[in-house]
């Protein structure tokens, strides 16, 4: 039965115009070093699916850009367009993820990355209207 279900999923009819934005793949590893005072990546870094390698000397803070900046970074923003990024803690200290305006974060213990661990996030836009931009980021 499992094989049949998989075949049905693989052979499902997907309209040609259903995918309007190409998937963004990891393009850069951003070596941040100590981020004790905090770090806010650019919208382009987040949208390029960057991997952020952090070595916090103390509790580090990683602040996501605003939803408006993320929407502005896309040529053709659409509700449902997604992005991915990874934060890696390379040291014995933790990282707190804080949110830019218009960003909602979900997942278990979503805003805290423990020492020597990486966390992958997937975000998607829920509103791309100017002045009301919003996105949800899920800890994968």
Structure description:
The protein has helices at residues 2-10, 43-47, 67-72; strands spanning 29-33, 51-54, 60-63, 82-89, 95-98, 103-106, 112-113, 118-127, 134-139. It is of the alpha/beta class and 140 residues long. The protein has one domain (25-139). The longest helix is centred in the first third of the chain and has 9 residues, at 2-10. Mean pLDDT is 78; it is low at 1-19.
Q: What's this entry about, in short?
A:
By secondary structure, this protein is of the alpha/beta class. Helices cover 14% and strands 34% of the residues. The chain contains three helices and nine strands; from the N terminus they run αβαββαββββββ.
- Write down the Rg: 17 Å
- The coarse silhouette is elongated
The major sheet is characterized as: 6 strands, mixed
The CA-CA distance between the termini, in Å, is 28 Å
Structural class: alpha/beta
Mean pLDDT: 78
Give the assembly state of these chains.
Answer: single chain
Number of helices: 3
The sequence of SSEs as H and E is HEHEEHEEEEEE
> Are there runs of 5+ residues with pLDDT below 50, and where?
1-19
**Strand order, biggest sheet?**
1-2-4-8-9-6
Number of strands: 9
Bin the helical content. 10-25%
Could you tell me the strand content as a percent range? 25-35%
Number of domains: 1
